[in-house]
Design brief:
The complex is a heterodimer of chains A (about 400) and B (about 475).
Chain A (H helix, E strand, L loop, with lengths): L12 H5 L12 H6 L6 H12 L7 H8 L6 H5 L6 H15 L3 H9 L8 H16 L2 H4 L2 H9 L14 E2 L7 E5 L5 H4 L1 H13 L2 E4 L9 H5 L3 H14 L6 E3 L2 H8 L11 H4 E3 H11 L11 E5 L2 H4 L6 H9 L3 E4 L13 H4 L1 H16 L5 E4 L2 H11 L4 E3 L1 H9 L1
Helix pairs in contact in A: 10-22, 12-23, 17-19, 19-23, 21-22
Chain B lengths: L2 H9 L4 E2 L2 H6 L11 E5 L4 H13 L4 E4 L15 E5 L6 E5 L4 E4 L5 H8 L4 E2 L12 H7 L6 H4 L6 E7 L5 E5 L10 H5 L8 E8 L1 E2 L3 E9 L2 H13 L6 E6 H11 L9 E9 L1 H17 L2 E6 L3 H12 L1 H4 L6 E4 L2 E2 L5 H14 L5 E4 L5 E2 L1 E5 L6 H18 L24 H14 L28
Parallel strand pairs in B: 2-4, 3-4
Antiparallel strand pairs in B: 1-2, 5-6, 6-10, 7-11, 8-9, 8-10, 12-14, 12-15, 13-14, 13-18, 16-20, 17-19, 18-20
Helix pairs in contact in B: 1-3, 8-10, 9-11, 13-14
């Protein structure tokens, strides 16, 4: 058995040595909590990565299973006193899997998540059209499990999706700056309502809003899956498209988290991460500044679902609550650990059982409250919640709730 | 048939792990050492544990029980190829008896989950080790775990009323129980703290503690750690027993602040965190007494937590202390000695002197109230010779603590870590008696062999020789 890494993205000795084996990461880890197994814990995964790095284990089937089981929710990073950059190390391990355990499926997946898939507007438009037709044929009712469930979590789609790309909007209040919005891959056609709300609220807060041409998918899903070349190409395209902007806004938590970490994928230029902000940060700040109005409380409860890549990866906790509160609602806490809902990007497709178990738990946390509205700032979580909660519940981005309230 | 095959015959093939990488991952707990794991199993019922014990014994394989793997004394690390019995799936809360304030729980139940489960009843489980968010009740029983709040309430042994144990013969026995004064020998007390050497605990009857009607949390800052130590002694001497009384030195506070931003004063040489719990009037009076004692000992400041949030933040900082050290170096050695409260000042000086002599950094965070020291030494094991210096310093610190009238371990257990220092505290006669007690439970050395008692503890001059296997 020969171990060792073969790519430049592999977990670094510094990343691995930072773990002191204390186990404080275990409580928040969804897969550890489901199984009680060390091999399904962040500490165990780091130990396995170290074994490979030290040449005492190979990137074999067992290693692949241990790494693939991880949701990359990064709850462990918040708990880690040694500040192990687990998300980065796991992305590196996934790149190693792609390099050392290539397969036709993995390659095909890499392409789907890369330039010719999510990074291609025609490809996304085609899929959108098919999904929209499927919705009209009531496909969620008769399609087999996984596909039907995924379709069931989507918002009603237009057959011909509009796009915000290349558009510019002037501020509706005293101008404070220009915000460049990340259109995203599926955000634009599938979650158009979130973009509409973000643009409206940003304009009210005094921003000129631009959606720069030449941008593409952020590449988060490619990076999480180890498709390094695709992730790098997409990141480079976006760095160029957003080069001239001081404020880059993402209204999908997963995209924003990844944009902030572009330094690992498309290095160059200091201060990039400080220029990227999640929409909830920008809006909450404008509310606090008095640039956006606060509505009187109606007492209507809204369950707060914390997307992992908002709360754990970006450490954004208060802003969505402040926004929901300013929209006149009462934010309701559902999970002190903010454990992953199981959507986790393509995980819900690759690991449907684990995903469904976590989705069911999350839905139960919502139904245990009196809230019938759930605020979630990430598209994947939104779809997961909608398909697990079923009819009778509304799942919306906090900024959408706010935009409606101030209309 | 191989051991793994025999285990798989009743557990099912997917539930017996033998892959080299999986064995590697399970080869270490929260401590520094690794050991050879042969097979890993995660039983779900007492019946499965019985079968595992019988099968392992038939194959002559030792049985090492493990919980969440947060122990610091390498107690769950085998010394030779062993069956690792991981009890995390036996995490049920079988029964809560609100009237008698007890609960039957599985050994794999997470300490904090128990407290969260019974919180609506106004009850909690008192022992609260720093790892309480993930460590298991079974692991707590094995090490007789303590925690900040054990000063007033006592350690695990004071909160375990009954134990269901799988013996070396694969029998299920009940030790202790719900009766307030069970007849016969207190074998329950033998199992608590036995570190997995007398059997596998499969159910635990725990005592539940009523939440205090009022708590006050005080943060006291001192310009000199000696003043902080004197405050601890004077407080207890004045008849005030805080629910918890914790000390941190300047280096420790700095690291904690870096990570958690708990709000500790970073300019003080020593900080005391005290919690007073009880009747509202008593708590107010005690808080004032404690403040006055601190001021009389030259405290720079004495601050009451403004609200529950601030108190929670302070406690989060305190409980994250060990981890915060990781920012300093990739490895750390955490001591766990105990000294009489009156000797705290002397021993802190000795600890610093020993560390300096071995060219090591040392920082302190500990249960000052019960004299349980936790000097921490961050180091990098990759640097040649460092581990040896750390070990040498550790042995000297333990020796100094014992000479000051203290002992080896407050709450982490002996495991492999302090096994060979046992003779500092126990005479050959003592060790032999302990070895014979262990033999009474486990004559064949099946359970966690080589742990706790140093080789040669069994002194044949004092009794009959060990029976042949």
């Amino acid at each position: 058995m020969t171990g060792g890494w073969v790519t430049r993205d592999a977990p670094t000795p510094e990343e691995l040595a930072a773990c002191i084996h204390c186990g404080l990461c275990l409580p928040g880890c969804p897969t550890y909590r489901l199984t009680g197994e060390e091999t399904a814990s962040p500490r165990g995964r780091l130990s396995a990565m170290s074994a490979v790095a030290d040449g005492i284990a190979a990137v074999d089937e067992t290693f692949e299973e241990m790494m693939s089981f991880c949701l990359q929710c990064r709850a462990c990073e918040v708990a880690c006193p040694s500040l192990v950059p687990f998300g980065r190390a796991m992305e590196g391990a996934r790149v190693e899997l792609a390099a050392q355990r290539p397969s036709p499926t993995r390659r095909a997946r890499g392409r789907l998540l890369g330039r010719r898939g999510l990074g291609s507007r025609p490809a996304v438009a085609l899929v959108t059209m098919l999904a929209a037709i499927g919705q009209r044929l009531r496909a969620p009712r008769w399609l087999p499990g996984r596909l039907g469930g995924a379709l069931g979590g989507l918002r009603p789609l237009p057959v011909r999706a509009p796009s915000t790309l290349s558009d510019t909007w002037e501020p509706l209040a005293a101008r404070v700056g220009t915000a460049a919005l990340l259109a995203g891959c599926v955000m634009d056609p599938w979650f158009a309502g979130v973009h509409t709300a973000s643009i409206a609220v940003l304009r009210r807060a005094g921003y000129r809003v631009e959606v720069p041409a030449g941008q593409t998918c952020c590449g988060a899903l490619a990076a999480h899956d180890g498709a390094a070349d695709e992730a790098r190409a997409l990141a480079a395209t976006n760095r160029q498209a957003f080069a001239g902007y001081d404020l880059i806004v993402a209204d999908s938590a997963g995209c924003g988290a990844h944009l902030k970490e572009y330094e690992s994928w498309a290095p160059g230029g200091e201060g990039w991460a400080d220029r990227v902000r999640d929409i909830t940060e920008v809006v909450a700040e404008a509310i606090a500044d008095g640039r956006l109005p606060t509505q009187p409380e109606t007492g209507t409860p809204v369950a707060m679902q914390d997307p992992c890549h908002l709360r754990h990866a970006q450490r954004i906790i208060e802003p969505p609550r402040a926004i929901v509160h300013a929209a006149g609602y009462t934010p309701v806490e559902i999970d002190p650990l903010a454990m992953c809902c199981g959507a986790a990007g393509v995980y819900s497709v690759l690991r449907p059982e684990t995903s469904a178990e976590l989705g069911g738990r999350k839905a139960a946390q919502v139904t245990a409250t009196s809230a019938r509205i759930v605020a979630s700032a990430n598209p994947g979580c939104e779809m997961q919640l909608r398909s697990h909660l079923g009819p009778g519940y509304r799942v919306a981005h906090p900024v959408e709730l706010f935009a409606e309230a101030i209309e | 048939m191989s051991l793994a095959d025999d285990l798989a015959a009743f557990l099912g093939p997917g539930r017996v792990k033998t892959d080299p990488l999986e064995r590697h991952v399970y080869a270490r707990d929260g401590g520094l050492r690794t050991g050879p794991v042969e097979v890993i199993v995660h039983p779900r019922t007492t019946a499965e544990v019985v079968e595992i014990v019988r099968t392992a014994r038939n194959h002559g394989s030792p049985v090492v029980a493990r919980g969440a793997g947060t122990g610091l004394a390498s107690g769950a690390v085998p010394t030779g190829p062993a069956v690792l019995v991981v009890l995390t799936r036996m995490d049920e809360i079988h029964e809560v008896d609100e009237a008698s304030r007890t609960a039957w729980v599985g050994p794999g139940l997470i300490n904090l989950e128990l407290s969260q489960h019974i919180a609506p009843l106004g009850l909690h489980y008192a022992p609260d080790p720093s790892s309480q968010s993930i460590c298991t009740i079974g692991g707590n029983v094995a090490t007789n775990a303590g925690g900040p709040h054990c000063l007033a309430d006592g350690t695990t042994v004071a909160h375990v009323l009954g134990i269901e144990l799988v013996t070396v013969d694969g029998e299920v026995v009940m030790l202790g129980g719900a009766a307030p004064d069970p007849i016969g020998l207190d074998l329950r007390g033998v199992v608590v703290g036995s570190e997995g050497t007398v059997g596998v605990v499969t159910r635990v009857l725990v005592r539940l503690t009523e939440d205090a009607p009022a708590t006050r949390t005080l943060l006291l800052a001192f310009g000199d750690t000696a003043d902080a130590a004197a405050t601890v002694s004077d407080t207890v001497a004045a008849g005030v027993i805080p629910a918890a009384l914790e000390m941190m030195d300047r280096v420790m506070v700095g690291l904690i602040e870096n990570w958690i931003h708990a709000g500790f004063p970073t300019d003080a040489a020593g900080v005391l965190l005290a919690e007073l719990a009880g009747h509202p009037a008593a708590v107010e009076a005690e808080a004032e007494m404690l403040s006055n004692i601190a001021k009389a000992n030259g405290a720079l400041s004495a601050r009451l937590a403004a609200d529950a949030d601030e108190a929670a933040r302070w406690w989060k900082g305190r409980k994250g202390a060990f981890g915060a050290v990781a920012q300093r170096a990739p490895d750390y050695y955490l001591h766990d000695t105990v000294v009489p409260r009156s000797r705290l000042v002397d021993i802190l000086g000795r600890v610093h002197e020993i560390a300096e002599r071995h060219d090591l950094e040392v920082m302190n965070v500990f249960h000052a109230g019960d004299g349980n020291l936790h000097p921490l030494m961050p180091f990098d094991a990759a640097e040649p010779g460092t581990l040896e210096r750390v070990q040498a310093a550790a042995d000297e610190i333990v020796t100094a603590s014992v000479e000051a009238g203290g002992t080896l371990s407050g709450e982490h257990g002996i495991g492999l870590e302090k096994r060979d220092l046992m003779s500092l505290v126990f005479s050959p006669v003592d060790l032999d008696a302990q070895a014979r007690l262990r033999e009474a439970f486990d004559p064949v050395g099946l359970f966690n062999p080589d742990k706790v008692l140093p080789a040669g503890s069994r002194c044949f001059d004092y009794g009959r020789p060990a029976p042949a296997q």
